[in-house]
Amino acid sequence: MANARSKIASLIGAPTDVGASHRGASMGPEALRVAGLHGALTQCGLNVRDCGNLNGPPNLQMSPTDGYRNLGPVVAWNQTVYDSVYRELAADHLPILLGGDHSLSIGSIAAVARYCRENHRSLRVLWLDAHADFNTRELSPSGALHGMPVACLCGFGPPELLQIGGQVPAISPSCVRQIGIRSVDAGERRFVHEQELEVFDMRYIDEMGVRSVMESALRDMDSNTHLHVSFDVDCLDPEIAPGVGTTVPGGLSYREAQLCMEMIADTNKIASLDIMELNPALDLRNKTATLAVDLVESLFGKSTLMRKPLASTVKLATASTTKRLATAFSHEASVK
Ligand SMILES: [Mn+2]
User: Fold this and answer.
1) Per residue in 302-317, pLDDT tens?
2) Which domain holds residue 48?
3) Catalytic residue at 38?
4) Are residues 284 and 317 in the same domain?
């Protein structure tokens, strides 16, 4: 199977914030481009193709109807995202969705799920986020759909959104691993437990460290696994990533996020990606976009690793660690 770095990566801009509670994420795709995403991915060895931006209805900031805000526009945008992501997957490309608010991952992951069903691939979704995004209209005070995408993908939400991928539910909670979570309200927490979502929250990361968390989150994948990463920039600590609509203190540090991305890269299985919730209206001189691009480079194999392979380290390491070290050492030349 071809690894990520020999593929065509398709950048798909989805400039909208119809699912968000604050405006501004609609400018995310352009900020990522300005921060040099195309060139950075090219440096990582990907053959990058920018598909431009998708079109959809404007954000009229309607007040919630039947518990959902802007439902019609959110459905229209997700349908467009779904079609576009599916088209790129079917062409054997690696789609990279540039959000846009996180509700658009419904369309993106529904497309990935369909592609996996049709090609007999198993799916693993890594959901990097401060929030579980597992709200329903009964649980959500705002009705903003960017708080509901994981629930929708798992079959809980408005039928118009659930049916986008042609199968309800689009995915099972068992293929999801959530990382960086630190803001979940009581009702949502109960629902996450009920549905047995696997969540590695910040407390768990504090206690166990990123390495152990990522080893668990990436466990049990094989050569048939399609790894999708849904990267909500608000998983990062607001001190380093202020440009998001819903900042929550206590997020991933720069080093923690780098290790997380590098360990994903080491699996060589990433086959689709969402970069979501970047809000340039709240950013400082495009700092958060630049950081997001930096982390995406690591996600596709750029490593800051300096150490040389020590015989004793390799001897003590487990088989999987040895493989990871070997992969990491092969990128030594690209140290920045
Ligand atoms: Mn999110």
Assistant:
1) 876 676 655 444 444 4
2) 4-302
3) no
4) no
